[in-house]
Amino acid sequence: MDRRAFIGTLAGGLLVTPVATEAQPAAGKVYRVGMLWFGSSLNDPPVRLRFDAFQQGLREQGYMEGRNVAFEHRYARGKYELLPDLAAKLVSLKVDIIVTPGNPPATLAARQATSTIPIVFISAADPVASGFVTSLARPGGNITGGTSLVGPGLVGKRLELLQEAVPKVSRVAVLSNPTTPDARVFIGEAEVAARSLKVQLQIVEARRPADFVGAFAAMTKERASAILMQQDAIFLFNARQLAELAAKSRLPAMYGLREHVEAGGLMAYAASLAELSRRASTYVGKILQGAKPGDLPVEQATKFDLVINLKTAKALGLTIPPSLLQRADQVIE
Q: CA 190 to CA 282: how far, in whole Å?
């Protein structure tokens, strides 16, 4: 059920709201948009969610598939190592623009494949630290997009909410994928927040689904009492397995994407990737009309939703404080 909005604002955040372009697509021209996906097909729920929102945003600007825009989809099938070759293939097709939906390794692969074709990322943890842009205000180069995690505010907020849901938590396992550009940023922010909240961290790594069982065994061995999970495509596309492992290990978990909670995880504090996808389409429209990516400021998400799975909480024997439930945007029962 929906609850009142719970707004999160990042410390020192820059709010940049793109204004829809007034220019219309050139008559008779068909623009080719390359989409570099981590999933296997448009039937994957995370892929479908993002693409539908992105396509809707393009339609609002006058770009219609089959009329003046064509999409070139390439799928990594859950394997990061395939991304560089897929990005190179999009470049060889001479697409007008490449879109990387919420996947920093895809953005990295696209950047390595071309320095001239515009690239728009839907979300990146810290695009400056990852080397995608020079600064948020003036990205420079051929890349721009949106970000849902900048500075220590968001990770700290997640850890704070987890502590509120599990008051006796003292040792939190931080599950990260060290192969991604934003893992170091995520862990660094978690460490800053942990010192403030007087919580001990256990850094646990998982590079692939085959590592998940061992990762949870390590958490149990070190007596972790909760999990803070990095926002990562490997984790997202295996959300149900991770939720089941967390339940089996009796570990409450805080996630960076609401899809994890819908798959059975305990709670998430997250920006809407559907909204970020729609807004990224505005940048695509501007660039197709001649704007330079390096001149379009990276947009930071300022609205975050708290989602709690009450069924999972009950299975874990947790009683979520009423004050926390009242602030939730959605409670799954």
A: 32
Distances (CA, A) of 214 to 90, 217, 220, 271, 281: 36, 5, 10, 30, 40
Give residue 3's pLDDT.
41
Name residue 227's beta-bridge partners.
Answer: 173, 253
CATH of 153-270+305-332, picked from 3.10.20.30, 3.40.50.11270, 3.40.50.2300, 3.30.70.100, is: 3.40.50.2300
Inter-axis angle of helices 153-165 and 183-197, nearest 10: 50
Adjacent-strand bridge partners of 73 = 35
Pairing of strands 330-332, 305-309: parallel
Q: Span 245-258, mean pLDDT?
A: 96
**The pLDDT of residue 154:** 87
Measured on CA atoms in the order 84, 94, 274, 301, is the torsion positive or negative?
A: positive
- State how far the Cα of 113 lies from the Cα of 86, in Å rounded to an integer: 9
pLDDT for 15-66, tens place per residue? Answer: 344 444 455 676 679 999 999 999 899 998 889 989 999 999 999 999 999 9
d(CA 312, CA 290): 49
Q: Euclidean distance between the first and final Cα of the chain, in Å? A: 8
Domain assignments of the chain as residue spans, ordered by start: 31-148+272-300, 153-270+305-332
Position 255 pLDDT exceeds 80: yes
Asked if residue 106 lies in contact with residue 75, where contact means CB atoms within 8 angstroms, the answer is no
Q: What token pair was written down for 49?
A: 């969610």
**Is pLDDT above 50 for 5?**
no
pTM: 0.80
- Cβ proximity of 227 and 173 under 8 Å: yes
The sheet with strand 69-75 has its strands ordered as: 69-75, 31-37, 97-100, 119-121, 143-147, 299-300
CATH, domain range 31-148+272-300: 3.40.50.2300
